[in-house]
Design brief:
The protein folds into 2 domains: 271 residues, Rossmann fold; 152 residues, IlvD/EDD C-terminal domain-like (Glucose Oxidase, domain 1). By secondary structure, it is α/β, with parallel strands linked by helices. The chain has 21 helices and 14 strands. Strand 10, helix 18 and strand 11 form a beta-alpha-beta unit. The strands form 4 sheets. It has a 6-stranded mixed beta sheet. Strands 2-1-3-4 form a 4-stranded parallel beta sheet, sandwiched between helices. The structure holds FE2/S2 (inorganic) cluster and magnesium ion. The site of FE2/S2 (inorganic) cluster has 10 residues, from loops. The site of FE2/S2 (inorganic) cluster (FES) has 10 residues, from loops.
Length: 571
């Protein structure tokens, strides 16, 4: 590209008062004028925050991206955007994914940037930044922060997936508070995000399979020197992308989304993948439906033996070769000609990588589990769909009929679940309402609700659970999620009652409540829409505009792109 045509020259290439202002304040930072004279100006969009512990090493990581940008002849400028700490943000980080995406979008568009590197880690930071960047569409590469090292507790390996086991163990009396203190000290023992195939690693694999990263990005642990090298190489790559004018719309075609769905099935990725990929597709203008997730994952077996669907950790996945050997093994299924940030087809980019451990990454002809992916359920309890991840569910519950025990909201659940008089047993179907995008608001990860103590005491560890909420990517169980329309919208899910018979048949993709239409309609007549918790501020805006989970839970007015042009100057 001709240097004078660079986007950043719309600022730094100006004469007169405007150019003086744009350049002078950059010189204040010790940047000589020639750096602004036509080099690719590369933004490093950083979600570093001490409130997002998974991303706490990102200031250090950014320095390696900068070295790569400088080496390739670009000029780096690092800037912060809203960060989203999964473990601390109340009521849920998901409430703010769309807000962070707006911050990212406007920060990129409003500034003199020719390309951007997105530093992403903890769950929501990846989709938020990618969504925002897609709505601008200048050359973009993602660098993930990498998973943390495997945890340790009393001589055994642990991960954030064990939180759910520890929680049940403490509720059943098998672990006391001292045991939990000891476990928490060994759980998160290095930089990085959750060290299993939870949502953060799923998102890192998602961007790699979409072609938005260099190969190998997803699995390198955060403390491994390979992570810094990848950051350096990504800095070099974004400069080349600017020179080639290789934009997200060139990479994120419908075929790239199909690839991501197939790869997600092979790795046993998080259910949150569905909601985030739908939202990204909405920004880039690719038609993608809930049914596509079922359709494109149906023929793909589970290859990665990783928690929560399997046994191993992200660290093991890296030593086995990471995502590239999985992509390579799927070559007969994938759209191999989809291009990546390198400008080369994904099939070629991943062709030379080897699988070093068939315990961790199974061969295609001997898969770890023939069942994989996301199953999309239909029926009168989820009129516009719900999802379940069969690889994380119990085989004996995949076809199940039981009496509903309904919790009207999360407080109702917390209030009742430990009550010994609660009429519930292992055959009951637990239903949690009002944890959807609008109802909570923000759609928290509470779908894998803990079992009642009297059931746990029998040694039972799984029951059918259904909600309009989400589940942590580290979670597991026979958990039906993202039921739509959510209870707060007033469909059948809003009026299901304790005692109704629920029929789940995962193989047949059915989820029904065995109550007549007449009865359901009569119940809906007397249903009242709950009042929003607030009309004010971002949360008020969110509640008014958030779409249902089957469309990705983006804000309706954020769909699509506003491009990268800004016609007016600021002075
Ligand atoms: Fe940040 Fe799991 S809490 S990735
Ligand atoms: Mg999570």
């Amino acid at each position: 590209m001709d240097n004078n045509n660079r986007r950043s020259q719309g600022w730094f290439g100006k004469t007169g008062k405007d150019g003086l202002i744009y350049r002078s304040w950059f010189q204040k930072q010790g940047i000589p004028t020639h750096e602004m004279g036509g080099k690719p100006i590369i933004g490093i969009c950083n979600t570093w925050s001490e409130l997002t512990p998974c991303n706490s090493h990102f200031r250090d990581l950014a320095e390696f991206v900068k070295k790569g940008i400088l080496e390739a002849g670009g000029f780096p400028v690092e800037f912060p955007v809203m960060s989203l700490g999964e473990t601390v943000m109340k009521p849920t980080a998901m409430l703010f994914r769309n807000l962070a995406s707006m911050d990212t979008e406007e920060s990129i568009r409003a500034n003199p940037l020719d390309g951007v590197v997105l530093l992403c880690g903890c769950d929501k930071t990846t989709p938020a930044l990618v969504m925002g960047a897609c709505s601008v569409n200048i050359p973009t590469i993602v660098v993930s922060g990498g998973p943390m090292l495997t945890g340790r507790y009393r001589g055994s390996q642990i991960s954030t997936s064990d939180i759910w086991r520890f929680s049940e163990a403490s509720r059943s009396g098998a672990m006391n508070q001292e045991d939990l203190y000891e476990a928490e000290r060994g759980l998160c023992r290095s930089d990085g995000h959750c060290g299993v195939m939870g949502t953060a690693s799923t998102m890192a694999c998602m961007v790699e399979s979409l072609g938005l990263t260099l190969p190998g990005n997803a699995a390198i642990p955060a403390p491994d020197s390979g992570r810094r090298i990848l950051a350096h190489l990504s800095g070099m790559e974004i400069v080349k992308m600017v020179e080639k004018d290789l934009k997200p719309t060139d990479i994120l075609t419908r075929k790239a989304f199909e690839n991501a769905i197939m790869v997600n099935a092979a790795i046993g990725g998080s259910t949150n993948f569905v909601i985030h990929l739908l939202a990204i597709a909405g920004r880039i203008g690719v038609e993608l439906t809930l049914e596509d997730f079922d359709r494109f994952s149906a023929n793909i077996p589970l290859l990665a033996n990783l928690q929560p669907s399997g046994k191993y950790f992200m660290e093991d996945f890296y030593y086995a070769g990471g995502l590239p050997p999985i992509i390579h093994q799927l070559k007969d299924h994938l759209n191999n000609d989809s291009i990546t940030v390198t400008g080369l087809p994904i099939g070629d980019v991943n062709a030379s990588f080897k699988n070093y451990n068939e315990e961790v990454i199974a061969p295609l002809d001997k898969p770890f589990n023939p069942t994989s992916g996301i199953v999309v359920l239909q029926g009168n309890l989820c009129e516009t769909g719900a999802i379940i991840k069969p690889s994380a569910a119990s085989p004996h519950l995949m076809k199940h009929r039981g009496k509903a025990v309904v919790f009207d909201d999360i407080d109702d659940y917390k209030h009742k679940i430990d009550d010994p008089d609660l009429d519930i047993d292992e055959n009951s179907v637990m239903i949690l309402k009002n944890v959807g995008p609008r109802g909570y608001p923000g759609m928290p990860e509470v779908g894998n609700m803990g079992l009642p103590p009297k059931v746990l005491a029998k040694g039972i560890t799984d029951m059918v659970r259904i909600s309009d909420g989400r589940m942590s990517g580290t979670g597991f169980g026979t958990v039906v999620l993202h039921a739509t329309p959510e209870a707060a919208e007033g469909g059948n899910f809003a009026v299901v009652q304790t005692g109704d018979i629920i029929e789940l048949d995962v193989l047949a993709r059915k989820l029904n409540v065995l109550v007549s239409d007449e009865e359901l309609n009569a119940r809906k007549e007397s249903w009242k829409k709950p009042a929003p918790i607030t009309d004010r501020g971002y949360v008020g805006l969110y509640v008014r505009h958030v779409e249902q989970a089957n469309f990705g839970a983006d804000l309706d007015f954020l769909k699509g792109s506003s491009g990268s042009e800004v016609s007016k100057d600021s002075h």
